[in-house]
Design brief:
93 residues, 5 strands, three-stranded antiparallel beta sheet, 19% strand, two-stranded antiparallel sheet, 3 helices, alpha+beta, disordered N terminus
Length: 93
């Protein structure tokens, strides 16, 4: 599982969006993210679309495109949820 100070792996059926209360909870399945490819998930993006040497810029692009929570699948069912808001990080930690 990839972890950085910008990413928090999540394995819970509900995740907070703008986690100020449970009223803002969204189902895990509705967290936005890049389109998945069969078997490899989003690994293709890191191989051919994103510049792996500029990972912080990639995260900024994902945040700009998908919002404060972004879900990616790294193949074999390994999900990573990038949590960009400090309030949300406190909630899911």
């Amino acid at each position: 599982m990839i972890e950085s100070r910008f990413s928090v792996p999540i394995h819970h059926p509900f995740t907070m969006l703008a986690a100020r209360s449970l009223a803002h909870a969204i189902p895990y399945s509705r967290i936005p993210g890049p389109t998945l490819l069969p078997l490899v998930g989003n690994l293709y993006d890191y191989r051919f679309r994103f510049d792996r040497l500029r990972y912080p810029e990639v995260l900024r692009e994902l945040h700009a495109e998908y919002g404060p929570l972004v879900k990616q699948n790294l193949g074999n069912g390994r999900d990573v949820v990038h949590v960009f808001q400090p309030e949300d990080i406190k909630t899911v930690s």
